[in-house]
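Propose amino acids for all 312 sites.
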């Protein structure tokens, strides 16, 4: 397939020298750890900047970006190789349609990923949005239900549109930490990650500014309002996630066709229902039968029964 062709990663050459040096250094480190291929899955709602972020990392217009039109229905994998290292980035269509998670889009993504290993999940949202809602949680839940919650051990959150002036007199860093805390909370809820699970392994949040009008430093690198050169920072975080001791997620037939990987205890359900029937329903039924039996007895008779029982 044309979209699967591995091309030389020439886009790297259009980065300023400072960025190129850092990127090649990071790829070198990965190769030292015997990582020669990296497959990154990019997911999120529509219009948040997924495709733009793919293009920013690759350094060329590899996938279509659009402000208004809805995206194509299929995922696209962009593969580039450089000095024996292959980078695969899978751009996906937005997961939301008409206010709901689009299960069909999710199904297509799962089939596309069959027999691939996801090394990193990049979950994209915008920095310049002030609220999270139930839909965000549903999107995270859908990803978790598809690939298992372990995928978040290989996950990072990217917040785009990061070149902004925060509202309400907040400092940039305060705004960033509030927004990232809100998004992370939704990720924890949607992925049902327990408090004790996250210690020492929280999902990192990275800022991205895909706009051509992004400010630059003296070395011509694109920087955020806090001075961070964001492309090397993003790639560094990706390599950190790869090296955190967790495993990539192999998308095999069992994973996409089997039961929800988070509900493996499902076989217990018949036993639990049987238990409830015998120990709860039966007992309540007995109580009800007793009440009905008592109701048939006239009040004076019940009184006499009580008096009679007191006599003995
Ligand atoms: P996708 O639907 O998630 O793939 O989003 P796109 O990458 O197609 O972007 C949607 C729109 O947002 C396009 O008009 C992009 O130019 C714009 N966009 C994406 N990322 C950024 C960003 O970081 N900053 C700004 N200013 N615009 C962005
Ligand atoms: Mg897109």
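Proposal:
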């Amino acid at each position: 397939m044309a979209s699967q062709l591995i091309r030389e990663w020439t886009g790297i050459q259009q980065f300023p020298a400072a960025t190129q040096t850092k990127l090649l250094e990071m790829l070198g480190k990965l190769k030292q750890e015997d990582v020669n291929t990296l497959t990154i899955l990019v997911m999120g709602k529509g219009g948040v900047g997924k495709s733009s972020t793919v293009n920013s990392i690759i350094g060329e217009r590899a996938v279509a970006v659009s402000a208004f039109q809805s995206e194509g229905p299929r995922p696209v994998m962009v593969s580039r190789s450089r000095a024996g290292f292959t980078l695969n980035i899978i751009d996906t269509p937005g997961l939301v349609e008409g206010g709901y998670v689009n299960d069909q889009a999710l199904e297509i993504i799962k089939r596309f990923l069959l027999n691939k290993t996801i090394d990193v999940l990049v979950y994209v949202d915008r920095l310049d949005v002030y609220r999270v809602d139930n839909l965000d949680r549903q999107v995270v839940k859908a990803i978790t239900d598809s690939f298992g919650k372990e995928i978040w051990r290989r996950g990072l959150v990217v917040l785009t549109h990061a070149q902004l002036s925060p509202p309400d007199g907040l400092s940039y860093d305060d705004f960033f930490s509030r927004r990232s805390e809100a998004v992370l909370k939704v990720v924890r809820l949607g992925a049902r990650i327990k408090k004790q699970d996250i210690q020492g392994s929280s999902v990192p949040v990275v800022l991205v500014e895909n706009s051509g009008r992004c400010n630059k430093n003296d070395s011509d690198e694109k920087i955020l309002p806090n001075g961070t050169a964001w492309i090397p920072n993003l790639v560094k975080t990706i390599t950190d996630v790869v090296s955190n001791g967790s495993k990539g997620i192999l998308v095999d037939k069992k994973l996409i066709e089997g039961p929800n990987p988070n509900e493996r205890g499902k076989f217990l359900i018949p036993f639990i229902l049987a238990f409830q029937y015998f120990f709860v329903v039966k007992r309540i039924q007995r109580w009800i039968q007793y009440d009905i039996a008592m109701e048939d007895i006239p009040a004076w008779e019940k009184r006499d029964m009580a008096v009679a029982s007191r006599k003995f």
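The longest strand covers residues 37-44. The pocket of magnesium ion (ligand 2) is lined by residues 50-51, 71, 91 (CB under 6 Å).
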